[in-house]
Predict the structure.
Amino acid sequence: MKINHIAQLQPTPTAVVLAFVQDDNFENQLQQCCSTYALNIDFVKQDFTADVKEFQIFYTADNQKVICLGLGKAPKSIDIIKAFRTLFFKLKNKLPDGVTIDIQHLPTEWTEFVVTGSTLGGYNIDLYKTEKKEISPIFKKDGILNILSTHEHTEASIRRGKEIAKTQMKIFDLMNAPANKKTPQTLANWALESGKKFDYSVNILEQQQLKSQKLEALLAVGQGSEHPPVLIVMEYKSPNAKQKIGLVGKGVTFDTGGISIKSSTNMHLMKSDMGGAAAVLGTIELAAKLKLPLHLIGVIPACENAVDGKSFKPSDVIGSYSGKTIEIIDTDAEGRIILADGLSYLVKNFQPDTMIDLATLTGSCVATLGYHAAGLFTNNDELAQNLTNAGDKTGERLWRLPLWDVYKEDISSDIADVRNFSGKPMAGAISATKFLEVFTENHPNWAHLDIAGTAFGDTEFAPQRAGTAFGVRLLLDFLENL
């Protein structure tokens, strides 16, 4: 689909989309639009009230299709994106190959969200079906989406919105792929291809390098799988960079729980246990595409947690890149183990000004916050506020939870420096973060995001649970506002 900026309405477009906010100006704007497009306002007002994601199709006397879309009251960016995604997703088989979205009466900054949502509406989750659905005319290569706007910087906003959506859809594919189509090497290849295309460096540490550099925690978790673990190191550096930011993402491409095996009921969903890695991959790619003035490092420890005679076991004591020893209480608490090596590697080799890790880490966080917010842990109030602001702005919301030292007792070990699981049926997300803190070398500007409930979930755009690309827009906004 090609997306163009037009400054005036072209003769008789076959379909026009008009979006409205439920505010004091609604009736006046509706009157103006009905006059412009020759619609009977009395008929329109009977059927359309501009509720969020509400849409109605009307026809002019010459059979021009006019679609009115509601954005609700005081919509935020995520509401606008979801409304346009819903519209284009539900109507994609009814839309022609040319559509005009008239946003002249909407705020300038909304252009990006309109384009992102409209583009996401064409996402197809049927990755491995042998009988493919026919692509809707508007989303074919010769489909044309015109953005009617007289705002300044519209073309830049269109490009930005489209690039964000394109990267998000790549992340959807990665998250939705099953375990046999997504190994640690798959994540590595994704990073290598992206780095080559968007001009940032990627280094992959494979098994022999992991052994020689003593990333023993990552190796231990991955030793039960036929697919060897890797450490993915990505670096994007702008010549105008004034800050160095490090991101670490958990990349468990499938998690059986290991010897502490999970129940079979929902184990198939553990193909999503690389949601943190996906967020880091998407953020680095977008930073490079949009040429952000930053020095950005992404570190992804990637592996499978499989059941095998070689798998690591409860009661094992393993080493780590930091030199600290870890007592294994539960092999299903594997994410924090590989993040230990990822965090230590980032601190030792790059010394970032700020570092953030993301992981689908604990069911405890899901039990606390459900599927509408991720857990935020940090001892830095300014960093917490900046991340929270970014979450509120993008709709990828965060809620701060405590990181007090009284929880250190949960990870105390008799025979090693630290243990990976408290064994207690409470405060699991907090004790997991206290474990990670050990491997940050007391970095003063570190935050952990537990995205277990938000990276993969129920969505109206897929019949079952699917990837959300949570964290990509959040981190992008955070980075741009540093």
Notes: The longest strand covers residues 295-305. Residues 166-480 form a domain with the Aminopeptidase fold (CATH 3.40.630.10). The CA atoms of residues 387 and 478 lie 6 Å apart. The chain is about 35% helix and 20% strand.
